[in-house]
Amino acid sequence: AALRRVEPSALAHCRSSGRLHSHKIRAPHMAAVFLAAAVLPSVQRAARRTSTARLLAFTSDMKPQHLNSPNNPRLKLAKRLHARRQREKTGLILLEGQRLIADALDAGLSADFVLVSDEQLRDGALDRLLARVPAEIAASTTAPLFRDVSDTTTPAGVLALFQKPILTLPPSPSLVLVCDSISDPGNLGTLLRASAAAGVDGCLLMAGCADPWGPKALRAGMGAQFRVPMMQVDSWAGAAASLVEWGCAIRAADAGGTSAHYDCDWRDASALVVGSEAHGISREVLADPRVHSCSIPMAGDLESLNAAVAGAIVLHEAQRQRMTGAVPR
After folding, report:
1. Side-chain half-sphere exposure of 104, counting CA atoms within 13 A
2. What gap in Å lies between CA 174 and CA 266, rounded to an integer?
3. Cβ(112)–Cβ(168) under 8 Å?
4. Average pLDDT for residues 100-104, to the nearest whole number?
5. Which of 63, 114, 157, 229 would bridge with 120, disulfide CB 3.0–4.6 Å?
6. What's the pLDDT tens digit per position in 117-153?
């Protein structure tokens, strides 16, 4: 009680000068002054810790900024990223869904902007994901506005903008996928996903391929784009020059191939060329004497498989040989 009646200014002066001023402090409280002067620093430190804790608690509980206008610059930017030209111009990519965004964060990428629908925010379904990004880059919006920004017919309720990552191919890749005019983004994404699972070191994208950073390709890739280095090449001549430099045996998956895919030796440095479903392997690739074609044996009278399925089958045969050291027949 005596401590509470001591004037703060007297305490401060007492601590700084080491003297007591009887004209400011009454005699009955002199002992209390000495005690208060001794404990004041620890009290102040405790107060500062309490204040900091309260500030941090408030920050972690902050709700994202609410955006309610379709003319908001960040909403307009997210919508523009549906177009390949805008992605290439800005260097940004648009990711939708918790899984894909979490994959990007796990890969060490930093989000520039995160948008959630009000419904998801109320349910608390995204609390764990939002805790991984700075509060100042997160925002919420209404369900109609979110649908307008989303690329899907049934939005997942969360999307994010990231800088496009650049992964560098190793100096001497031992297993390479070459995508020859894979124009369907779903097939391209699936091929990249199969490549990541099969341990492919890099992927060459020839002219005519879909954008691997488009929304559909990203959804099909399920995070493979953050794991498999990719390189754009203008022509087969450019791709072949790199493959020869790396010492790769080049094989093309073709229905008219002279060898079964499992009869080829994939244990050494190898490259697999996969063509589009509509046109198959390019003529210039098949005409190259350095390219050997292989096919996947099939039952019945089926002529071919989906490009992504065919690529996955051959890549995983290559992985099997490499993991087991099995010698082809």
Report:
1. 28
2. 9
3. no
4. 96
5. 157
6. 998 888 777 889 999 999 999 999 999 999 999 999 8
Task: Count other Cβ atoms within 10 Å, centred on residue 219.
Answer: 19
Contact assessment for residue 109 and residue 165, using Cβ atoms and an 8 Å cutoff: yes
CA dihedral 222, 224, 227, 228 (to 10 degrees): -170
Mean pLDDT, the chain, as a whole number?
85
**153-181 core/surface letters (b: 16 or more CB in 10 A; e: else):** eebbbbbbbbeeeeeebeeebbbbbbbbb
- Give CA separation, 217 vs 95, 212, 299, in Å: 11, 5, 30
List the structure tokens of 167: 């992964």
Asked whether the beta carbons of 248 and 270 are under 8 A apart, the reply is yes
Phi and psi based region of residue 97 (left: phi greater than 0; alpha: psi -120 to 50; beta: remaining): left
Element at 122 (helix H, strand E): helix 118-123
The predicted model scores a pTM of: 0.79
User: What is the H or E stretch that residue 178 is in?
Assistant: strand 175-180
**C-alpha to C-alpha distance for 241 and 92, rounded to whole angstroms:** 30
pLDDT digits (tens, 9 = 90+) for 23-77: 444 544 444 444 444 555 554 544 444 433 333 332 345 578 999 999 999 999 9
From the list 173, 175, 190, the residue with the least C-alpha distance to 277 is 190
